[in-house]
Amino acid sequence: MTDHLKPWPYPLWVAHRGAGKLAPENTMAAFRMGAGYGYRMFECDAKLSSDGVLFLLHDATLERTTNGHGIGSELPMGALAQLDAGSWHSRAWAGETLPTLEALSRWCLANHFFLNVEIKPTPGQEEATGRATGELMQRIWPGDRVQPLFTSFKPEALKGARDTAPQIPRGLLVDKLSDATGDADLRTALALDCSAMVLNHALWDAPLVAKVHGAGLRCSSYTVNDEWAAQRLIDLGTDGIITDRVDLFSPASR
User: Fold this and answer.
1) How far apart, in whole angstroms, are the C-alpha atoms of residue 202 and residue 225?
2) Can you tell me the distance from the alpha carbon of 89 to that of 252, in angstroms, rounded to the nearest whole number?
């Protein structure tokens, strides 16, 4: 069954937003902390600034994870770079900044780490954000290195990434299945020539894993923070586990 599966050169374990909840998400401090726990693959959220720079932020708005206000994508990168993205988490991280996707990518390349870029567009910027992400990786990521993985809940974002960087693998994120069988979402993933479906971990069961693997795609999951849930996914034969609990799971284990 595995001979027709899409290539999957990535580790099983992926650190969510750098180090889960142990450090301020999507900051370089978080990625360094995740690496300190032995993780070699990191998930981040990328969106566009008003002057076209890709930066790391999960929410459309700045309030939850910075001292800024309003919609992040409405500010230029120079203003975003001056925000405090650490104090909200704890005083120890005061002054942490919002990194650019390029800065994180170059850190991953220098350390031979793997990267999962979730294209997280501000509403209305889906295809443009996907295109910009593809263009950036085309420019900076060497062709002879394991390519990053692009994921998104937005098919338009994956389409933009595919159009500008077709060689970089893509995964469709799904929080709730569009139909009871998962067939509609699988068709979307296949139409985008995805390498994987990345589902809310509770959605996976043996028939769905078999169906997705049978179509040649890989099966990955978010956000897995309990040992029982991780073991269930391992027993199902899935291919990737995104976790906040970098302190709980050893990334060296299968």
Assistant:
1) 12
2) 28
Tell me how far apart the alpha carbons of residues 254 and 252 are, in angstroms, rounded to a whole number: 7
Distance CA(19)–CA(46), nearest Å, equals: 16
**Residue 199 falls in which region: left (phi positive, over 0), alpha (psi -120 to 50) or beta:** beta
pLDDT in tens, 86-98: 999 999 999 999 9
Query: What are the tens digits of pLDDT across the range 239-249?
Result: 999 999 999 99
Q: Name the phi and psi angles at 152, rounded to 5.
A: -165, 150
Which residue type sits at 170? R
Q: Which of 144, 143, 196 is nearest to 171 (CA)?
A: 196
| Residues that are catalytic | 16, 58
The residues near 245 (Cβ < 8 Å, ≥ 6 apart) are 20, 224, 225
Distance between CA atoms of residues 147 and 167, nearest Å: 8
Task: Give helix 206-214 / helix 183-191 axis angle, nearest 10°.
Answer: 30
- Whole-angstrom Cα distance, residue 81 to residue 225? 31
Q: Are residues 26 and 101 in contact, defined by beta-carbon separation less than 8 angstroms?
A: no
Point out which residues pair with 149 in neighbouring strands.
116
- Centroid of chain to Cα 3: 26
| Tokens matching residue 9 | 């050169």
Query: Cα–Cα distances in Å, from 213 out to 118, 128, 190, 196, 197?
Result: 22, 30, 12, 9, 10
- Tell me the pTM: 0.97
d(CA 95, CA 223): 27
Strand residues in 63-148 grouped as ranges (E): 114-119
With beta carbons less than 8 A apart as the criterion, state whether 47 and 118 touch.
Answer: no
* CA pair distance 114, 109, nearest whole angstrom: 8
